[in-house]
Amino acid sequence: MALVTYILLSTLIAGLNHQFQPELLGKTATISLIVVIVEIFFLKLGCYLLSISSQSQLLDLIAYSGYKFVGIIVTVVVAEVLNGGKGTGGWVGWLIFFYTYLANSLFLMRSLKYVLLPETSAGVSGGPMQTDSRAKRSQRTKFLFMYSYFVQLFFMWILTRA
Question: Membrane-spanning residues where (predicted)?
Fold first, then answer.
């Protein structure tokens, strides 16, 4: 839903600036879908490499990948209104961008930890297995941090520029 809203909003703003071309709908939709597909691919690859498995994991990841569009929509609308049509080019636009980026990243960190950091079973006693579990949890936490902060920054920046 947010993806479609983003596509329509970006073409609406282009139309208000007298820069609308029909191809813009296709270009924006293509870039957005490529970003979502690449994001889900890298998330699934990371889950595979870190041995993370879940029944509803793919649907969860698809749903979580759409949340970035909410922040992008807020950024584009508020920056367009406050910057007088300059988009995210002014300091207000970048301030709003970083606020929505940090809010989205924090939300993803808190939400995806239930998908990517499953709880260990209570029946496991101390020993080498617990150390292995601790090491895997540390790797998964680093992956979650990298995804939530650095990857989201890159993708959100691409989408606000498109």
Answer: 29-51, 58-79, 91-109, 143-160
